[in-house]
Automatic annotation (TrEMBL):
The keyword Chaperone does not apply. One of its GO terms (cellular component) is plasma membrane. Pfam families: ABC2_membrane_3. It is a multi-pass membrane protein. GO terms for molecular function: ABC-type transporter activity. It comes from Candidatus Cohnella colombiensis. This is ABC transporter permease. It is found in: Cell membrane.
Length: 372
């Protein structure tokens, strides 16, 4: 009963700090709106522009006609824009100047050479990194060789090459499977701001130290563990309330994707709120200063968010190693996996519980040391 009384008192005292409450509720919403809107294109699927492929033919036989038919057939014509060059040199120059992505040259008398059973080649010039034009031309050559073997080099077989589908169009649906800008930052920015909410844990400790309330409380017949537990519960309730506010606004106001298991989402938010409140109390007991604790919490929240990919996804062995020390990593992993893969992963949840347990134990030790 005494614990709940202390928790209620802590909660009411902090919720009456209207300026702090307004700041911690408005700031996350503004950050999510700005980041989600500004960087939405970074997380949205992009349409690939048509590849510009130039051609020049010194051949006037069936190979020239077959290649033209091949490049203008569906769905290849939907992937490339075919352009004519005045000469081989002009085509190569346009590739070098990045005006064209690739250039195909047919040597003179290529059709005659093939009819006589001699070797012939189509020459491809392309930019470094261009991968579509090469396989496309190889497909044309392979199909021609196959038909040539089967039908003894009949011209009709070559013309029939382009009737076979070379490029398959497979629609890829990313909606609900990949977070957009608003979806991504609704989660990552929330956790960053909840770590800022650790200041309520700091206030629960430093305000009593500053006005000597802590000394008077020690003279009452209540254990120090009850004081710490009550303050932790009250501070956690405040941070969790802020988390619920952000969740509701982003889900119904910004239409962010929160279509996961509601019990899991609330459990992750509650665990993270406990971690944030406990970290704030820990810093409050260690530093005994609101200003120093606030500065340290700001640094920690920024680092935790950075290594967890909260600002933007990051890769690298060092980042991967540091991310294991951040509670944001496990909270984001649990939510993103559930929302976009429809899976409930126990490992990030277990790590969040362990993280919360470690921080609470350190807070208790620091609080007892302060009492002594």
């Amino acid at each position: 009963m005494k614990i709940w009384t202390i928790a209620t008192y802590t909660f009411l005292r902090q919720i009456r700090d209207y300026k702090s409450m307004a700041a911690f509720m408005i700031l996350p919403i503004v950050m999510i709106l700005v980041l989600g809107s500004a960087l939405d294109s970074f997380y949205s699927p992009k349409t690939i522009a048509l590849m510009k492929v130039g051609t020049y033919s010194g051949d006037r036989g069936f190979i020239n006609d077959s290649l033209k038919q091949f490049l203008t057939s569906n769905p290849i014509a939907n992937q490339i824009e075919t352009l004519q060059a005045e000469s081989v040199e002009a085509g190569i120059e346009r590739v070098k100047s990045d005006e064209w992505d690739a250039f195909i040259a047919i040597q003179p008398n290529t059709s005659e050479a093939l009819q006589q059973g001699d070797k012939a080649a189509l020459v491809l010039y392309s930019q470094t990194g261009t991968t579509f034009a090469g396989p496309l031309l190889e497909s044309f050559v392979r199909d021609y060789n196959l038909n040539a073997v089967l039908l003894s080099l009949s011209i009709e077989a070559v013309n029939g090459v382009s009737n076979q589908p070379i490029v398959k169009q497979i629609p890829i649906v990313t909606e609900g499977k990949k977070p957009g800008g608003m979806d991504y930052y609704a989660v990552t920015t929330m956790f960053q701001c909840l770590l800022f909410g650790a200041l309520f844990g700091v206030f629960a400790v430093t305000k009593d130290l500053g006005n000597y309330t802590h000394r008077r409380l020690l003279t009452t017949p209540v254990r120090s563990s009850a004081f710490m537990t009550g303050k932790l519960l009250g501070s956690t309730a405040i941070v969790f309330m802020i988390a619920l506010f952000i969740f509701i606004v982003t889900k119904f106001g910004f239409k962010s994707n929160w279509d996961g298991n509601l019990e899991l989402i609330l459990s992750v938010l509650l665990l993270f709120s406990i971690i944030a409140a406990a970290m704030g109390m820990l810093l409050g007991y260690l530093t005994k200063s609101t200003m120093i604790s606030s500065l340290l919490m700001f640094i920690l929240s920024t680092v935790f968010t950075l290594v967890a990919g909260g600002f933007s996804p990051m890769k690298g062995k060092l980042i991967e190693l540091l991310s294991k020390l951040s509670p944001n990593t496990y909270a984001q992993e649990a939510l993103f996996t559930n929302i976009y893969e429809d899976k409930i992963m126990l490992s990030p949840l277990i790590r969040l519980v362990l993280f919360a347990g470690i921080v609470i134990c350190l807070t208790v030790l620091a609080g007892r040391r302060r009492v002594q």
